[in-house]
Structures are given as structure tokens and as C-alpha cells.
Design goal:
Layout: H1 2-41, H2 51-76, H3 86-93, H4 100-106, H5 114-137, H6 141-145, H7 148-152, H8 158-172, H9 190-210, H10 216-235, H11 240-253, H12 259-268, H13 271-282, H14 286-294, H15 299-307, H16 312-321, H17 329-341, H18 344-351, H19 358-368
InterPro entries: DUF2336 (IPR019285)
Pfam families: DUF2336
Protein name: DUF2336 domain-containing protein
Length: 369
């Protein structure tokens, strides 16, 4: 009997070690996939990602550029010098005619912003999980009639109700008419947003220069002023992850944050709310939690679920849906076996790196290459 228990324990320990090692490999593989995706999106014909995913990422990026372009031009028109020709003013004022995008495309502006690519890819992958969940949800009458988030918006606790209403409002703005993903400007990380706005502003400025418009210094000042104004305006708005964390904290404070709620959010397609709950319970940031949830390998998701203290039934419900909702029964069985073998303590140890300052963690990783 003792021999059998020892053998079983050794096997469990071995599986746990394999899960942690797999999570570490998945982290490195994720970086490689991101670099490949960046090369693909920015013109390397030797690399190709999934065509549908690639098309959606490019569409989200184009929509962002179009939004920035339009807002800059709208605010720029009244600031331009009086000697700018009327035809140039008409072109700048016609928002159906793109200005920045052709300049970025036509001049070979291929400087890869890996952080921007990561945000775009995450938004598209999140949207895929949202659509899958909402499609499946229509087949469950109880979920349709008693959705969790809508109920929280009517909760007696004002903080919970307010946070839920903000979440509902923000989610509505992240989906286009034909069920395509949208990435609002305020949902970009501040540094990424600033780089993109300045690049689009420079593209608008280059377009004006091509029209042989005089008063270059005055135009530069005007473009810089409107770009700075846009940055300041958007900076005042909380991003989607901040809204999700706010809801998760309100639920945690009132004792509403539990495994059933996390699963319900995932099932209803409120993926960010579910991820925020996991992030808080595991003691990591949202960026790290998203990386672990969306990693195609699935190993990091197991570590996150264990570190967050998610029970077996709830973990099974999440593993069934994440990271892609298309895993085979054998793969799901293997993941559940790995989840069973991984202790909370081992998962907490494995997740420690994600609790460090991201810049420090990146420096450690770079030094180890």
C-alpha cells in the first residue's frame, strides 16, 4: 500500500512539474508567436498567421487609424492658417476620404510596434471567445432569462450596480454592427496610444506638406496641439480592463465574487469580467491574466486557475471554453488531469514572475536569452 501511494504521489508530482514547465514554454512560445504575427501584419510575406484572425486584426487597426485621423482633422480645421487653399480644407474636412492611412501604407511605414500588435491580437481573440459564448448562451433558456451582469446592474449595493452598468455600457461600444470587434481608443495602453496618435498626426502632416501648403511652422504647431489635445481627452477615460477590475473589486468587497460568478461571466460572454476576477484572486495584473487565458497551449490557464483557487467543477467549465472552445475531449481530459495534479502552492510559485513589475520581468527575460 505504501509503495502504491508513493508511486501515485511521484506521478502526481511529475505531472505538476510538467504543467509548470509547459507554462514556461508557453510563455516563450507566446513571444515567438507575437513576433511572427507582427512580421506578418507589417509586410513579411514569409510568415502567415490564420487568415481570418489576420484580417480581423488589420480591420481593428484600420478602424483605430480612421478614428484618430478623423478626430485630428476635425479639430485641426479651425486651427489652420488662413492661407491654406480651399481645396486642401475641403479634403481635410471630407471624412469619407482617408488621409493618414494612405500615407502610412504608401510610404512604407512598417515600423513594427509589438505592443500594439499584442493589444490588437488580444482584442480579436477576446472577441472570438465572446462570440462563441453568446452563440452557445442562446441555447440555454435559463441563462437568457437570468443573466448575471444584468442582474448585478440592479443590485442593492450601489457600487456593484454602478460598476455593472458601466461594464454593460463599455461592452456595447466594443462590438460593431456586424458583430466585428472594435477597440476603442481609450482601451489602448497609454504608451501605445500615444505612439499611434503621434504617428497618425505625422501622417496627416505629411499629407498636408504634399499639397505644397505654406506656413509649415504654423501647421506643425496646429497638428501638435490637436494631437496633444486628443491624448489628454482620451487619458481621462478608464480603459476596459480598469472597468472590469472595478466590477471585480466591488463584487469581492460584497462577497459576490465566487467560482460560480466567474463561470457565469465566461458563459455569458463577459470575458473581461471573468478574467478580472481571476486576476484579483491570483494576485496578478490584467495583462498577465489575459496572456494566461488566451494562450493556445492551455498550460498557463491551468496555472492561473489553480493559483486563483478555482474549484474543480468551475475549472472544468472554464477549460471547456478557454482558450479556444475547440479542444478535443482527449485534450480536455489531459488538461483536467494536469489541473488535478497541480497544487495551489506550486501554481502560486509558478505565477510569481507575473506579480513582478512588468518592466523588471521583461528585463530578466531579456537577460536570460
Amino acid at each position: 500500500m505504501a509503495s502504491s501511494e508513493s508511486s501515485s504521489g511521484a506521478g502526481s508530482d511529475g505531472t505538476a512539474v510538467a504543467v509548470v514547465a509547459g507554462a514556461a514554454r508557453a510563455t516563450r512560445a507566446g513571444r515567438v508567436r507575437l513576433e511572427g504575427l507582427a512580421r506578418d501584419l507589417f509586410g513579411d510575406d514569409g510568415v502567415r498567421t490564420d487568415e481570418a484572425r489576420r484580417t480581423r486584426i488589420r480591420a481593428v487597426l484600420s478602424d483605430l487609424i480612421r478614428t484618430i485621423d478623423g478626430r485630428l482633422r476635425r479639430d485641426l480645421l479651425p486651427r489652420l492658417p488662413a492661407d491654406v487653399p480651399a481645396d486642401v480644407l475641403m479634403m481635410l474636412g471630407n471624412m469619407t476620404v482617408p488621409v493618414a492611412q494612405p500615407m502610412l501604407d504608401g510610404e512604407g511605414d512598417r515600423r513594427v510596434d509589438h505592443a500594439l500588435v499584442a493589444v490588437l491580437a488580444r482584442r480579436v481573440d477576446e472577441h472570438r471567445l465572446v462570440v462563441q459564448a453568446r452563440t452557445a448562451m442562446t441555447q440555454d433558456l435559463e441563462l437568457v432569462q437570468r443573466p448575471l451582469l444584468a442582474g448585478l446592474a440592479r443590485h442593492d449595493d450601489r457600487t456593484v450596480a454602478a460598476a455593472a452598468r458601466v461594464m454593460i455600457e463599455r461592452e456595447a461600444g466594443r462590438q460593431a454592427r456586424f458583430d466585428e470587434p472594435v477597440l476603442p481608443l481609450e482601451d489602448l495602453p497609454a504608451a501605445v496610444r500615444a505612439r499611434l496618435i503621434w504617428r497618425v498626426a505625422a501622417a496627416v502632416r505629411r499629407w498636408i506638406a504634399r499639397q505644397h501648403v505654406p506656413a509649415a511652422a504654423a501647421i506643425d504647431r496646429a497638428v501638435a496641439a490637436v494631437a496633444g489635445g486628443l491624448l489628454a481627452t482620451v487619458a481621462e477615460m478608464p480603459d476596459h480592463d480598469t472597468v472590469a477590475i472595478g466590477l471585480a473589486r466591488a463584487m469581492l468587497r460584497t462577497g459576490l465574487a465566487d467560482d460560480a460568478g466567474t463561470v457565469a461571466f465566461a458563459v455569458e460572454g463577459h470575458v473581461a469580467a471573468a478574467v478580472a476576477g481571476l486576476a484579483l484572486r491570483a494576485g496578478i495584473g490584467m495583462d498577465a491574466a489575459w496572456d494566461m487565458v488566451l494562450d493556445p497551449d492551455g498550460a498557463r490557464l491551468l496555472v492561473l486557475l489553480r493559483a486563483a483557487g478555482i474549484d474543480r467543477a468551475a475549472a472544468a467549465a472554464l477549460i471547456l471554453r478557454w482558450p479556444d472552445g475547440a479542444a478535443s475531449f482527449d485534450a480536455i481530459g489531459d488538461r483536467m488531469a494536469a489541473y488535478d495534479a497541480l497544487s495551489v502552492g506550486a501554481a502560486q510559485d509558478a505565477i510569481d514572475l507575473y506579480r513582478l513589475d512588468p518592466a523588471y520581468a521583461a528585463a530578466l527575460e531579456a537577460a536570460a536569452r
